[in-house]
Amino acid sequence: MLIAALAWVACRIPDKPLEPGDEAPAFEASTLDGDDFNSSDLAGAPYMLNIWATWCAPCRHEMPELQELHDRYADEGFTVVGVSVDDRGARETIREFVDEIGVDFPIYHDPSWEITDKYGLSRGLPGTFLMDSEGRFVRRWTGWFRPMAEDVQESVRQVLAAAAGQS
């Protein structure tokens, strides 16, 4: 029994942490309307992936600034994408929260928590990941952070400039 439990835990640990330049792990989730979503739909433009839950206080705290970051750079082709790991059946709770905060960037739902394994979030939520237009990992923030901090915006501007240079 102990060996089976250890094997299960070992299977949930990513092979290695994401390093800048690594391909972003593919993931599947659903929309808040229950439709399927595949991360391959994000290809071709830089984005910031935020993994969160409605019951997570730091997640709730940073959400307005994530919206502000999205609003600031959306016209340049940048998107913030949220994936909630709230339990099954929590779609209405998620929807009420994003409506209350005024979030209009894409929000998806992964009640399986598979995304946390793929992105190596073993230390809890939230986890935020910046990807370039080629789907490569650029930078990570684990735990609460300030999305509108100058260093974060500079990272976003750099991936946008690189994407513009590829056009």
Describe this protein's structure.
By secondary structure, the protein is of the alpha/beta class. It has helices spanning 2-12, 57-73, 91-101, 114-118, 150-166; strands at 28-31, 36-38, 47-52, 79-84, 107-109, 127-131, 137-142. The termini are far apart.
Summarize the structure.
With 167 residues, the protein is of the alpha/beta class. It has helices at residues 2-12, 57-73, 91-101, 114-118, 150-166, and strands at residues 28-31, 36-38, 47-52, 79-84, 107-109, 127-131, 137-142. Helices cover 37% and strands 20% of the residues.
Helix-strand string: HEEEHEHEHEEH
Instruction: Give the overall shape.
Output: globular
Structural class, by secondary structure, is: alpha/beta
Sketch the major β-sheet: 7 strands, mixed
Total number of helices: 5
Strand order of the largest sheet: 2-1-5-4-3-6-7
Low-confidence stretches: 1-14
Radius of gyration: 16 Å
Give the distance, in angstroms, between the N- and C-terminal Cα atoms: 55 Å
Proportion of residues in helical segments: 25-40%
